[in-house]
Amino acid sequence: MFVKGKEAIRMYFYCEDCKKEYPLNTHSYKCDCGGMFRLHKDPHEAVVKHEISLGEFVTPLVPFQVGKLDFLLKMEHLLPTGSFKDRGACGMINALHDLGIKKIALDSSGNAGASMAAYAAAADMECTVYTPDDISQEKVKQIEAYGAKIVKVANGRMKACAAVKQNLGDAYYASHVYNPLFFEGIKSMAHELYDQLGHHVPDYIFMPVGNGTMLIGLFLGFMEIGRLPHFVAVQSSKCAPLYEAYHEVPASPKRTTIAEAIRITKPKRLKEMVKAIRDSGGDVITVPDKDILKAQKYLSHRGIYVEMTSAAALAGAVQFFENGKPDNYKVVIPLTGNGLKR
Ligand SMILES: [Zn+2]
Q1: 31 Cα: distance to centroid of ligand 1 (angstroms)
Q2: CA of 12 to the centre of ligand 1 (A)
Q3: Domain count, the chain
Q4: Are 11 and 49 within 8 A, CB to CB?
Q5: Same domain, 34 and 72
Q6: What are 114-153's pLDDT values in tens digits?
Q7: Distance 333 CA to ligand 1 centre (A)
């Protein structure tokens, strides 16, 4: 899709509410009316350019058994910087490189920051990452190793988001939440799964959901394929804004969870996330932190070392199918991030 010439001209952002159009290199990150951006492009043009590459590959789909339950693990934690966010970063950085952008800033709880910093380094772009000050040291080291500047912000993820917007200067806001170009990259996972399952869509996909980058990316990808799996979003019972919105239950005070990548109290694309789950006939569930910890241990004792957030999806799938699962159901669990970064 990021092709020079007439295709590129057809691509632009538009407001999901009032439909106002914005060019891709806009320094606005949302519409003047407050609406979030969507990407307009030719639906038949789905080729993401890979001029800037860190060796992306088709991640393996590995059978995995928990008691009588059989799942398929999509090994996203093996991607170049250790998380699925590399798909989005690859897509967005290639597009920004094409637009001639040389300086970016973003906010992240860690994984997206590492992915964007790595791909920005490969594209020779200046990159600043705003993070909450409780981010893990391993993620800080990784982001800094790629040559990006880190700005730590007190009082959580939402404050980091506010800080980057106030201090953008001449930098392009390369947000994995606001900017639709990121989702264009994530879509590749849907197409890979479809190919790996012999041109079938899985019955279920269980995923941890914070800002919903994977959920929305997979939704868009499977829409291109023409059929949706049931999406089941898994959140920690200590921080579950999507669960509350989806099930229309009163909001509870958000606390911290051991799953740092889904420690998101106010996701920006809540409306879009609820729609994706509804359209797929899926569900939103919560799991207690002790089950996340248990799932992480279970995986690592079988040789798979992932971060807590990834384990939340397995904990959710086990809970969802606690009374059994039809054998013919293909249930995919993407492992979102590598345990080495914890
Ligand atoms: Zn608008």
Answers
A1: 5
A2: 14
A3: 2
A4: no
A5: no
A6: 999 999 999 999 999 999 988 888 889 999 999 999 999 9
A7: 35
* CA of residue 324 to ligand 1 center, whole Å: 46
| Ramachandran bin of 55, using left for φ above 0, alpha for ψ from -120 to 50, beta for the remaining angles | left
CATH of the domain at 117: 3.40.50.1100
If you measure from the C-alpha of residue 11 to the centroid of ligand 1, how many angstroms do you get, rounded to a whole number? 17
pLDDT at 188: 95
**What's the burial of 152, exposed, middle or buried (CB within 10 Å: 0-12/13-18/19+)?**
middle
Residues 67 and 172 in one domain: no
CA of 92 to the centre of ligand 1 (A): 22
Please give the angle made by the CA atoms of 225, 24 and 21, to the nearest 5 degrees. Answer: 85
Does 205 share its domain with 264? yes
Q: Are residues 123 and 93 in the same domain?
A: yes
Residues 37, 22 contacting (CB under 8 angstroms): yes
- Based on the fold, state whether residues 209 and 278 are members of the same structural domain: yes
Phi, psi torsion values for 102, nearest 5 degrees: -115, -10
Six token digits for residue 269: 């694309």
Do 134 and 109 lie in one domain? The reply is yes
Tell me the CA–centroid distance for residue 178 and ligand 1, in Å.
14
Rounded to the nearest angstrom, the distance between the alpha carbon of 15 and the centre of ligand 1 is 5
Give the pLDDT score at 258: 76
